[in-house]
Amino acid sequence: MCRWLAYSGSPILLEELLYRPSPSLIDQSLHAQMGAEATNGDGFGVGWYGLDTTMRDMPDTRGPDVPVLFRGVEPAWNDQNLRELARSTSSGLFFAHLRASTGSPVQQTNCHPFRHDRWLWMHNGLIRDFALLKRDLALAVDPALYPSIEGSTDSEVMFHLALTFGLTDDPVAAVERMVGFVEATGRRHGVEHPVQMTVATSDGERLWSFRYSSEHQSRTLYVSAAISTLRNLYPDNPAFVGLSDETRVVVSEPVGSFAGAWQPFPESSYGIVQPGDDVIGDFRPREP
């Protein structure tokens, strides 16, 4: 499968989470402990919101809310351009993904995160027997969105189905409809457990995360404890001093070695990281 990380909070350098903790996300590209595979070397990607301060006077035809993508097909542990970018780029909301292919080719258009306008999307898991279901699923994508599908992964089709079912208006309901549709389609074709997923998506202001599988044995997903809690637990650690109380990190598996720093997502649940109180709720797929 894959490993991923989503950060929302005070702007930090990407390397603070990709490289500096022990273990870090990049360490998980070689030695993941909780994934279906220990090695996640089939490409990588990062997506972030907010232009670098040195670039703000330059024209950007995409608009200020459209995230930037950097994706590559090399293993993340071996990409020097990623290391250079991570030590020089800061953001208050960014995604990072390490890919372990479930069968689709290793190519840049298959690397996460995926982008549509201001939205980012990344996924760990699979649609089982995707080749069998792909035609029915792809035909359900809004014709206006279909040309935006660049790669061949189940993850990108899931994203475009969620967009079709209203992601930009109500992300939770849209992802519930997407999963309900995939499950109904799969079962029509005799696939018993069609969906296995942890997903993150964002519009640049809020971060939505989902943990679900048709068999209710989902891949791991964790959210960081409140920064105030971490300051109390580790008063001498400077890493937590400059971070706002709004800061949260969602990960496939924990980074760093701080006891009490990570809380598991419940089975079949979603979470929303947003200004003010965060939200966690039950995830209930439904047919659109």
Number of helices: 7
CATH-scheme architecture: 4-Layer Sandwich
What is the oligomer described by this structure?
A: single chain
Shape: globular
Category from helices, strands and their pairing: alpha+beta
The side-by-side strand order for the widest beta sheet comes to: 3-2-4-1-10-9-11
Helix content: 10-25%
CATH superfamily: Aminohydrolase, N-terminal nucleophile (Ntn) domain
Largest sheet: 7 strands, antiparallel
Q: What value does the average pLDDT take?
A: 93
Helix-strand string = EHHEEHEEEHHHEEEHEEEE
How many angstroms separate the termini? 27 Å
- The number of strands is 13
* Beta-strand content: 25-35%
Q: Supply the number of structural domains.
A: 1
* Gyration radius from CA atoms, angstroms: 18 Å
CATH class: Alpha Beta
Which fold name is given in CATH as the topology?
A: Glutamine Phosphoribosylpyrophosphate, subunit 1, domain 1
Pfam families: GATase_6 (PF13522)
Protein name: Class II glutamine amidotransferase
InterPro entries: Gamma-glu_amide_hydrolase (IPR052373), GATase_2_dom (IPR017932), Ntn_hydrolases_N (IPR029055)
GO molecular function: transferase activity
